[in-house]
Amino acid sequence: MPLGDEFEHIDRRFHDLTVPIAWVERHFDGCRWAEGPVWFADGGYVVWSDIPNERLLRWIPNHGVDVFRTGTEFTNGNTRDREGRLVSCQHGLRRVIRTEPDGSTTVIADSHKGKRLNSPNDVVVKSDGSVWFTDPNYGIMSNYEGYKAEMEQDGCYVYRVDPARGTIEIAVDDFVKPNGLAFSPDESILYIADSGVSHDPDGPHHIRAFDVGKDGSLSGGRVFAEINPGLPDGFRVDTDGNIWTSAGDGVHCYSSEGALLGKIRVPEMVANVTFGGPRRNRLFITATTSLYSVFVAATGAQRP
Ligand code: MG
Fold first, then answer.
1. Is the peptide bond before 304 cis (omega within 30 degrees of 0)?
2. Could you tell me how far CA 74 lies from the centroid of its own chain?
3. End-to-end distance of the chain based on CA atoms, in angstroms?
4. What is the pTM of this model?
5. Rounded to the nearest whole angstrom, what is the distance from the C-alpha of residue 221 to the centroid of ligand 1?
6. Three-state SS for 186?
7. How far apart are the CA of 270 and the centre of ligand 1, in A?
8. What share of the chain is helix, strand, coil (3-state, %, to 5)?
9. HSE on the CB side for 92, CA within 13 Å?
10. How far is the CA of 21 from the centre of ligand 1 (A)?
11. 78 CA to middle of ligand 1, Å?
12. pLDDT tens, position by position, 34-76
């Protein structure tokens, strides 16, 4: 059932990225805080986190929703690595884990320089296998989406892990609350959200863009887009380099030059998005209590 008037066209280019006869569909509304959507192309379903309820849920098109995993230790962001293994951020155990094909889990990162991480929030895997994740302190600020605790790190950083060598290093150290992150289609740019405004009215609510060197080093870090209203939590990039990000009034779409092209209004606060479906042209949206989707005329860049 169409909600009506979901698309707001700000730039003519947004007409070519949306399907005028498509609409925003709600698939499930029983979450406390929905986050971390990830598409399983091989299974044909989307999995996402219900953080306070400590579970992962799954929606299978034309079938319905079931519980994918329980006891998730307040899992937040999810992605898959190049082998298709699920990679997840756990607030509760303050770590990033990988789920192996046999169902066992491997810890990718849980500390830096001998001190526990804050509460890994969102994660992306580069084509070379390196794992990049953000580590704000949201998951240790209360007992709602983690376990209240003091920070051991002296800041909220973005980390790069080489699982093959077992190394972890700080990639970026000048964020207030780093949150979502995604590479451009050719991986020459890493976009990272700072949602610092969540706990400071004067804090940042923008996405920054870093140039990625051949050795994985980052440079630059210009402010790519200020998100209003609300803040950028998670976002994804399409094959043309457009950024589809969460915002206070729905999903905002930006061109690779940083122009706001249009909005998709969603009736709840959006936390994250991911492209899915057999042709990666369906945008899945996790928003507060619900999982939504909308077909678009863009194709998600992220594989698998
Ligand atoms: Mg997040």
1. yes
2. 15
3. 30
4. 0.97
5. 19
6. coil
7. 10
8. 5, 50, 50
9. 13
10. 30
11. 10
12. 999 999 999 999 999 999 999 999 999 999 999 999 999 999 9
